[in-house]
Write a structure and sequence with these properties.
Layout (H helix, E strand, L loop, with lengths): L5 H9 L7 H13 L5 H9 L2 H11 L13 H8 L1 H19 L3 H20 L5 H10 L2 H9 L1 H14 L3 H9 L3 H11 L4 H9 L10 H16 L15 H7 L3 H16 L6
Helix pairs in contact: 2-3, 2-6, 3-5, 4-5, 6-7, 6-8, 7-8, 7-14, 7-16, 8-13, 9-10, 9-12, 10-11, 12-13, 13-14, 14-15
The chain binds fe (ii) ion (2 copies).
């Protein structure tokens, strides 16, 4: 018998007030950069409103690596120097990082970043048009876990107890205790923040990729990256069993064994850099 109805849990989560910077900055940057005619000025204006992010972007653009140390004074100029994709990735990473860090979910942060990196590599190998977007989807895929943890910690404790006592996966335990999963919750958040379908479907269906209608390949990639990342020891918790890989998702990505081996090699290298990130 579930301890609270899915509708009750949804009501609790949708009082999103204290889910930090993610909604505004991320949804604005995602929607601006998805438009064909987006400009550095527009992105700059959004970032300028968040002083911490603005400082990070300026610091990076002024680093000796880009060849203009101490000479970039505006965020818009920094966006031109760094490129839209680097700024978009950095901003979203910083927001998700803050959100997970402030909730004490360091391991989920490492897992999310590992999935984002692996998804980016798989998307590039599979020839997707926008691998950057798949990176972002990877980074956001388990946000439902954060929302549940922040809004209903006592229910998450019951889920984790069920996982340990009966050796269930997180999704199985969530279904049993809550009659919903963190993936469903991530879908509510995506809707609430008006994120595009290209992010919403991978967030909602990363455990059931066959349900994706609009972006099945992106969803399949995030699913495979999630399973791969767990199998490589970068799961959201040490005790969590590796979830099974969907054969349809693997088929949809359409990579041969050599390409997979190359992706695993790149992922292993990327995972080593996670602790230096940010
Ligand atoms: Fe998940
Ligand atoms: Fe995950």
């Amino acid at each position: 018998m579930p301890v609270a109805s899915p509708a009750d849990i949804r009501r609790r989560i949708e009082k999103v007030g204290d889910l930090p910077t993610l909604p505004l900055v991320v949804s604005k940057i995602v929607s601006i950069s998805n438009r064909a005619n987006s400009s550095a000025e527009e992105i700059g204006q959004v970032i300028e409103k968040d002083q911490v992010l603005a400082a990070k972007v300026l610091k990076l653009a002024n680093s000796p690596y880009y060849g203009f140390p101490g000479r970039i004074g505006s965020v818009s100029h920094a966006v031109v120097i760094l490129g839209l994709n680097v700024v978009k990735r950095m901003t979203i990473c910083a927001s998700v990082f803050d959100m997970m860090k402030s909730s004490g979910m360091d391991q989920l942060w490492r897992h999310s970043l590992a999935v984002a990196m692996a998804a980016h590599t798989l998307a590039t190998r599979a020839g997707l048009l926008h691998p950057e977007e798949v990176f972002v989807a990877g980074l956001l895929h388990d946000l439902g876990e954060v929302a549940l943890y922040v809004k209903a910690p006592e229910l998450v404790m019951q889920v984790e107890r069920a996982m340990l006592e009966r050796d269930l996966s997180r999704v199985e335990a969530e279904q049993e205790v809550l009659s919903l999963s963190h993936a469903e919750v991530a879908g509510w958040l995506a809707e609430h923040w008006s994120l595009p379908t290209s992010l919403k479907e991978p967030m909602m269906y990363h455990h059931e990729p066959a349900l994706a209608r609009d972006v099945p390949r992106q969803t399949a990639i995030v699913h495979v990256a999630d399973v791969l990342t767990k199998a490589m020891g970068c799961g959201a918790s040490d005790t969590q069993p590796v979830t099974p890989l969907s054969p349809q998702a693997w088929k949809l990505i359409n990579l041969d064994d050599n390409a997979l081996a190359a992706c695993i090699e790149i992922a292993a290298r990327d995972f080593d850099t996670i602790d230096d990130f940010l």
